[in-house]
Amino acid sequence: MQVAIDGPASAGKSTVAKIIAQKLNFTYIDTGAMYRACTVIAKENNIDYGNEQGILAAIDRNEIQLKAVDGGQKVYAGDKDITRDVRLPEISANVSQVSALPKIREKMVSLQRKMAGEMNVVMDGRDIGTTVLPNAEVKIFLVATAHSRAQRRMLDLKQQGIKSDQTLKEIEQSIQERDYKDSHRQISPLKKATDAVEIDTTEMNIDQVVEAILVQIKKSQKNI
């Protein structure tokens, strides 16, 4: 079974997707982390974020892997754990440019589809229901105000021990800029699939969002 959860930055996709995957004993695939890993690899190899061929070559030398570790998920580039690196502000600011590169998307989408074809998955991202898994049994599109998403992003950084000089207002502006880039890129832009269920998480806590998605999954399972 395939569960696709899409939405803009910091709408709560990854948090709820992990919980749902654990509850259902499905595999969680964080596609955003995969594109962030591409961006980290570019940064660490001093490759311009617009250099498609250079980044592709570096990815081939540093295989991106998502590994389940102690109930969580770790991101690796080759044998290096880059789980914390993928959340750094510089990576957040540049991942839209890297993820918009056609050959990078092609490579990541191929890998994502391969994973989804081998197991029950909960996959989150920007274009899962529209491009990566267009035939997913359940499609969810999460939305929230930019202000509430900025608050979540700031809290996430603090919880991960990542220092940021950005103010809440600056983070909110950065999120709005990311939304624009993601929804206006030529390749697989951020948009709601026509058959996706939209859930506004602005006034909801994590448990409420999880329950709302589980209701949709149970409906789908009854119809299979």
Q: Care to describe what's here?
A:
One of its GO terms (biological process) is nucleobase-containing small molecule interconversion. Belongs to the cytidylate kinase family. Type 1 subfamily. The chain has 224 residues and is α/β, with parallel strands linked by helices. It is 52% helix and 17% strand. It has helices at 13-24, 31-44, 52-61, 89-99, 102-116, 128-132, 146-159, 168-184, 206-223; strands spanning 2-6, 27-30, 64-69, 72-77, 80-81, 121-125, 138-143, 197-200. The strands form 2 sheets. Strands 2-6-1-7-8 form a 5-stranded parallel sheet, sandwiched between helices. Helix 2 packs across helix 3 (52-61), helix 2 packs across helix 4 (89-99) and helix 7 (146-159) crosses helix 8. The longest helix is centred in the C-terminal third of the chain and has 18 residues, at 206-223. It is globular, with a radius of gyration of 17 Å. The protein starts with a strand and ends with a helix.
